[in-house]
């Protein structure tokens, strides 16, 4: 850094700004230990900014359309109204909140550096974003554990819809509790990079030393990624082994086949979650344990790229539903137009049942002029 940059960095360090690394939707205008990046990084190039705008806009567009469609079809068609799909709707709602509350503001702050969204949003946005991410990860665990209970332990008693509603409410309450520090320990103020250069910042403000912020950040990363991934892997490995054994020794009945297809879809969701979020969380851990990472010239660009990869998970799930689940695929198609797939003369088992479902979807579609 040149002399001017060093002076600016020293001045801002005295203001004790903090990196919002505990929030998946964190912006990178404020950096840990009070460093605001003043280097001419690549995100200031017009071509890079155009690419970032297109990338975020694409994710927002597909995320809003896909997750809204999932929510609509589950409540529109009775054949999709079961406990597992209600949990999937809860997952879609959380992803929809990330698309609407996280990505647009993250993009704006990434391009502008300074916080220009006002004091109220400074407190509310990180809190809402944190809730959405925790709801998403907790819901994935609930789905996995519910299927583990049903398939591995062969429990015929299903969770009632009332109990499902209670679990969803508790999920949001716990998520709000886990995300509350993002609103409580926060400050909105004006910082002077120089006597003639004031900027507005929205930052974490932890009591005592900055170690408290680091402890929360690492804990949040474990709760948002490490623990959910461990639980999901444990549950689905046992489910898969159980289904495999039943296929080998108990015959290939339709119910087992359906369990296997649904489990494959849900397992794919977990894999997408793990792969898409890994670079982002690994980068944040690197920041926590090695502060020199902050001095990389393209730190901001790398952070933004990893963030984009992580956010891709918010629109991939609806694609997986349509690709790997016949009921969702038929429901999606019926929303856009009354669709009946062509069937061959030699019908496979379940084709007649599938056709009946399609007919019902189309009848509902026509009756409501969708």
Q: In terms of topology, how is this protein built?
A:
Blueprint: H1 3-13, H2 46-76, H3 83-112, H4 119-151, H5 161-179, H6 181-184, E1 186-194, E2 197-204, H7 211-249, H8 254-289, H9 299-311, H10 313-324, H11 326-336, H12 351-367
Antiparallel strand pairs: 1-2
Helix pairs in contact: 2-3, 2-10, 3-4, 3-10, 4-5, 4-7, 4-8, 7-8, 8-9, 8-10, 10-11, 11-12
Summarize the structure.
This is Neuropeptide Y receptor type 2. With about 375 residues, the chain is mainly α. Helix content is about 70%, strand content about 5%.
Task: Describe it.
This protein is mostly helical and 370 residues long. It has a single domain, classed as Rhodopsin 7-helix transmembrane proteins (Rhopdopsin 7-helix transmembrane proteins, Up-down Bundle). Helices cover 69% and strands 5% of the residues. The chain has a two-stranded antiparallel ribbon. Helix 2 packs antiparallel against helix 3, helix 2 packs across helix 10 and helix 8 packs antiparallel against helix 10. GO terms for molecular function: neuropeptide Y receptor activity. Belongs to the G-protein coupled receptor 1 family. This is Neuropeptide Y receptor type 2. It is a multi-pass membrane protein.
């Amino acid at each position: 850094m040149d002399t001017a940059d060093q002076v600016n960095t020293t001045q801002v360090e005295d203001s004790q700004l903090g990196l919002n690394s505990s929030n998946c939707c964190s912006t990178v205008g404020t950096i840990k230990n009070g460093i605001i990046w003043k280097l001419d990084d690549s995100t200031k190039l017009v071509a890079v900014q155009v690419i970032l705008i297109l990338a975020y806009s694409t994710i927002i567009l597909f995320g809003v359309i896909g997750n809204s469609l999932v929510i609509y079809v589950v409540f529109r068609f009775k054949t999709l109204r079961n406990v597992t799909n209600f949990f999937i709707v809860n997952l879609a709602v959380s992803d929809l909140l990330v698309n609407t509350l996280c990505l647009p503001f993250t993009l704006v702050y990434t391009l502008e550096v300074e916080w220009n969204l006002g004091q109220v949003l400074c407190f509310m946005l990180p809190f809402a974003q944190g809730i959405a991410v925790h709801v998403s990860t907790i819901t994935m665990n609930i789905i996995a554990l519910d299927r583990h209970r049903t398939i591995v332990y062969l429990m015929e008693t299903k969770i009632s819809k009332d109990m499902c509603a209670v679990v969803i409410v508790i999920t949001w309450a716990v998520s709000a509790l886990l995300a509350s520090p993002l609103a409580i320990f926060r400050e909105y103020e004006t910082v002077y990079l120089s006597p003639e250069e004031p900027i507005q910042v929205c930052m974490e403000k932890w009591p005592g030393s900055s170690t408290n912020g680091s402890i929360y950040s690492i804990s949040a990363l474990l709760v948002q990624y490490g623990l959910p991934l461990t639980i999901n892997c444990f549950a689905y490995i046992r489910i898969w082994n159980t289904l495999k054994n039943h296929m080998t020794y108990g015959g290939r009945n339709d119910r087992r086949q359906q369990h296997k297809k649904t489990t494959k879809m849900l397992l794919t969701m977990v894999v997408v979650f793990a792969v898409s979020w890994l670079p982002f969380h690994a980068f944040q851990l690197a920041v926590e344990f090695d502060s020199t990472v902050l001095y990389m010239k393209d730190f901001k660009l790398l952070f933004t790229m990893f963030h984009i990869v992580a956010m891709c998970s918010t629109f991939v799930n609806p694609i997986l539903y349509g690709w790997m689940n016949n009921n969702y695929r038929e429901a999606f198609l019926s929303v856009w137009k009354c669709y009946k797939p062509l069937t061959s003369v030699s019908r496979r088992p379940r084709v007649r049942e599938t056709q009946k479902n399609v007919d019902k979807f189309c009848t509902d579609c026509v009756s409501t002029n969708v």
